[in-house]
Amino acid sequence: MAQIILKRIASGDKTAVQECLDTYGGLIWSLARRMSPNSNDAEDAVQEIFIDVWKNAARFDEAQASETTFVAMIARRRLIDRLRKTNRQPNIDSLEDVLAEPAGDKDTDMQMYVEAKEAAKAMKNLRPEQRQILHLSIVQGFSHQEIADALTMPLGTVKTHARRGLLQVREFLALGDSDLEREAAV
Amino acid sequence: MKDLQKERLLELLADQTIFGLSEEEVMELGQIKKQFPDWEDDVSLELTAAMIGLSDLDTNDMLPANLRAKIFANADVFFSPNKESQEALNFTPKANTAGGLPATESGGNIIEIKTKQPFWQWFGWGLAAAACIALVISLWLMRTPKEPEIALNTETVKTPEVAATPESVKTPEAAQTPESVKTPESVRSPESVKTPEPARTPKIVKTPEVARTPEPVKTPAPELTASQKREQLISSAPDVIQTNWTSAKDDKRVLGDVVWSNAQQKGYVRLRGMPVLDASKETYQLWIIDEKNEKTPVSGGIFNVSGTGEIIIPINAQLRINKPKQFAVSKEKAGGVVVTKPDRIVAVAKI
């Protein structure tokens, strides 16, 4: 049912806008609040993201990913661009907390996106440092330098863990060409 | 050789997705992609990151109603067959419409739009409008009540000093007071307003000066002290919360409180009795623990104290706070940190 929203949007069906808002409004709003310095900025970002979604709806390929993942990708692109333009300082997280409760462990009463659960499963296959760095960078929004400082780890090591972790998660989620990864794997 | 390049391609794509690339790396990626055209439009790493990024998001979050309404309004324009209407959203032309996604800093396809006019643009229009209004008012004031006065006292009107002084601003108003209306000069028929045409010439010359006179009258409000701002927040924000500081270690006494308005995302810390630190080596740092994401304290800024007297510091939250659960002050190295440790906390204020 939800998978047809973007196709309808792409065909110019304005009635799909309401469904689009019902289905992805909360998701985009949550992402925007997490990655915006304040609520005004988040509101602007959400408006931009929705227009990005409508504009890119025709590019959605259901064979490649779910509609939710595609929308989240569009949102993430916009939010990252906005952050980089404003040089926002990222939020901080306690290193102790991250180590005590690795990324992927969630509150049981929180309703998670199916895609997030899949990603969490994939993340559990990673080495702890890979999982931690991916969480700090992708979920928390830290830069590689900040992660290196926080974890007292060389910059190159941070990048290497992040790259390998991302490629492994991609393979686990069957989102890419595993042959190429194997060739590139160290 | 090609294997190495494939490896480098994946490295760059991963870096682009996670951290962003430098200009040199963007150029390098562009060069390598030419040898691997199949990777030109690949978004698998971005999709992977997007799935990871869905962690910690609650599916029950709702879009605010006012924002939803704005998006609907945007949809009206976006789906309008009228291309000019779409221009109103300030779309920039798509850089690439052939399936590939135009490059951006994050490596993705972004359609540049502006959903709000920049503040300074509106401010400029506002200033222009205010100047026009001032001009019209000054013209009107000079034309109606002052005609006879100017005719009688042209010299006075011509002198720049008079035009610039507040008294000269008041003159037209005085001419409109009931007393002035009672005077024979002020009992002006429409004809009397129209008749002294020659007297208008000096007035027109003077108009810009009259229009400018409000400027010195607009004395900027004195900057409020942090204490006054704090009081203002307490008196103006209906949702303001207030809580007291306690020492994180029982052997030390910390006095003071925190006031915070979640609606305004604004607050102030008041502290007394904080030990003075060597500012070249150490600093205090404020943290806000959000109820919705306790594992991720938000930095509220760094500060130092020069004495053990009372200080008031505005809270500079780096992110929007959903619902504060606790505030904390830690002692950190100079310049502050991005990650603190529990043993660095010196004071806490629980809601």
Tell me what you see in this structure.
The complex is a heterodimer of chains A (186) and B (351). Chain A has two domains: 2-86, Rna Polymerase Sigma Factor, Chain: A (Orthogonal Bundle); 95-184, Orthogonal Bundle (Arc Repressor Mutant, subunit A), CATH 1.10.10.10. Chain A has helices at residues 5-10, 16-34, 39-56, 67-86, 95-100, 114-124, 128-139, 144-151, 155-172, 178-184. Chain A is mainly alpha-helical. The relative contact order of chain A is 0.09. Chain A contains ten helices and no strands. Chain A is globular, with a radius of gyration of 17 Å. Chain B has 351 residues and is of the alpha+beta class. Among the domains of chain B are: 124-217, no CATH class; 226-350, Immunoglobulin-like, CATH 2.60.40. Helices cover 42% and strands 17% of the residues of chain B. Chain B has 15 helices and nine strands. Chain B has helices at residues 2-18, 23-35, 44-52, 65-78, 83-87, 119-143, 147-152, 154-158, 160-164, 166-176, 178-182, 190-194, 200-212, 214-217, 226-236, and strands spanning 241-244, 246-247, 255-261, 266-272, 282-290, 293-303, 311-314, 324-333, 345-350. In chain B, the strands form two sheets. A five-stranded antiparallel beta sheet of chain B has the order 2-9-8-5-6, with no helix packed on it. The radius of gyration of chain B is 32 Å and the shape is extended. Mean pLDDT of chain B is 69; it is low at 91-105, 107-118 and 145-217. Classes of the chains: A mainly alpha (186), B alpha+beta (351). At the A-B interface, helix 2, helix 3, helix 4, helix 5 and helix 6 of A face helix 1, helix 3, helix 4 and strand 6 of B.
